[in-house]
Amino acid sequence: MIGRVAGRVAYKGDDHVLIDVGGIGYVVFCSDRVLAGLPPAGEAAALFTDLLVREDILQLYGFPTLAEKEWHRLLMSVQGVGAKASLAILGALGSDGVSRAIALGDVAAIRAAKGIGPKTAQRVVHELKDKAPAVMAMGAGPVAAPGASVPADEAPAASAVAAPAPATGGAAQSEALSALTNLGYGPGEAAGAVAQAAGEAPEADTAALIRAALKLLAPA
Fold first, then answer.
1. Could you tell me which of 24, 119, 125, 219 has the fewest CB atoms within 10 Å of its CB?
2. What is the pLDDT of residues 89-134, one digit of tens each?
3. Taking the domains of the chain in order of start, what are their residue ranges?
4. Alpha-carbon distance 77 to 27, whole Å?
5. 174-198, pLDDT tens digit by residue?
6. How buried is 73 (Cβ within 10 angstroms: 0-12 exposed, 13-18 middle, 19+ buried)?
7. DSSP 13
8. Contact, 69 vs 50, CB < 8 A?
9. Which homologous superfamily does the CATH classification assign to the domain defined by 4-63?
């Protein structure tokens, strides 16, 4: 199993990228969103990958985070959703958008993806609704982008390192979800409240998401 590919972009096609890893080129199929975020030819790139194995084909699919890769795996488990449809959904909504749509039962958001009909969208939401809390709990997750080492003499002194910024996006949703479940809310209702709060304020940090979600769960 090939779980991650890191190297240099050789070229980008309409639906795939060729990544040169030590002289070996890996063709990795990606959503439009992921392809747009990759650097131009010659620059370093990395993707988490899922290998599709069939009798007559071997194809790699690439994702910037483990959460997005997990949604791809789950979407593929739904009847009528193949790799192309999964990439269409993820390309249209992104990992966080898919989490929100499924947690909130938003069939229309799933249906907005190219090639996804109403029945398929309903199946996606119905079959994966209970899976949303676990994927949301992954947060932004590790990013596949290649890291760069910093020489010891160029690393900043400990006293000069700024305090980390408050978590936002997927990380904030993960932390808020954890806090709400610790307060005794069920994973499903907590995920739905966090998803709605994040949809209304995408840049909210953890504390803001918790406050907003609590207002939804226990309105005054």
1. 219
2. 999 999 889 988 999 899 999 999 999 999 999 999 999 998 888 8
3. 4-63, 66-136, 167-217
4. 23
5. 888 888 888 888 888 888 888 888 8
6. middle
7. -
8. yes
9. Nucleic acid-binding proteins (2.40.50.140)
